[in-house]
Amino acid sequence: MNPSIDIGTEADEVITDQKTRCATPTFDPGGGGINVARVLTRLGVHSDALFVCGGYTGNLLKQMMAEEEIKSVPIESLDVTRQNVAIIDNSIGKQYRFVLPGLVSKKSTWKSVLEKVETTIQNYDFVVASGSLPIGVPADFYSLISSITKKAGKQFVLDTSGSALFEGILNGAAYIKPNQEEFAEMKRIFNAASDDELCSILFEKGIDHIVHTLGKEKTLLITPEHVFEFTPPTINVRSTIGAGDSFIGGLVAGLMRGLDKKQAVGFGISAAASTLQSEGTDLCDADEVEDIYSKNFA
Ligand SMILES: Nc1ncnc2c1ncn2[C@@H]1O[C@H](COP(=O)(O)OP(=O)(O)OP(=O)(O)O)[C@@H](O)[C@H]1O
Ligand SMILES: [Mg+2]
Questions:
Q1: Domain count of the fold of the chain
Q2: Is the C-beta atom of 292 inside 6 A of ligand 1?
Q3: Has residue 26 been placed in a domain?
Q4: In CATH, what number is assigned to the domain containing residue 263?
Q5: Inside any domain, residue 21
Q6: What 3-state class would DSSP assign to 135?
Q7: pTM to 2 decimals?
Q8: Catalytic residue selected from 245, 260, 282, 285
């Protein structure tokens, strides 16, 4: 719902109130759903990327998706697709990341996304909703997608945060993937005294699997009957961009190829690890994912 064009560059030094002359920028398509579709495509899983886009940046986004040969279902909007900017300040070796808000000003735009989901879903087993919601889209939007998915007899996977998450789960989901912060946020919002209590509340709301990722420390797969714990492999992290999205892409790819849910979580961890080992905004590599999976989880 809230894709972006991600601009990356670097400068000798960022000084306030002065022009910061930057190096030649890189441009990448960004946003949760966009990245999940890119990962699925790399892993050889057929998908359609549904995304809202508008203006010159929207056109660029469509072009970039076509160049990467990612099947797209763009939903045209009157609002210009947002851009995010990341600038490395070489004097301190740190990165500034400016994330701009997206906007969908017309109700008819997000309504047509729901219609597109309803028609596109017929060809698929899973619907993944990932990333933040733009201004103008109701916080319970993902729960509407969940209803459509359920009615079609397909599986809904949700990876988002804040109110999009709290209100997005109200009609249940096959999988949610809260990280440490999102899990803690849900505990607060749902007034849960413990982790177990939060999980019980989520199961009551119709969540089938809670995949709680805790970065390099561990990943938990929690169902009403079991808790399975996984340890991510030790790797040389080059960039953390896209780890969560790669996890989701790997998880769904694993389930699509018939792995059981424990193995599929292992495949998700492998996809995340491969992305973490890649430079900058680059995502996972299929052969590397297979290699990590067979060494650690098969
Ligand atoms: N340092 C690390 N080493 C190995 N694997 C890692 C590391 N950090 C993250 N991962 C993998 O990436 C997955 C997702 O990471 P994390 O729990 O940070 O989710 P996230 O916060 O949603 O990620 P993102 O920052 O992309 O949104 C984890 O389940 C784990 O497998
Ligand atoms: Mg995340």
A1: 1
A2: no
A3: no
A4: 3.40.1190.20
A5: no
A6: strand
A7: 0.96
A8: 245
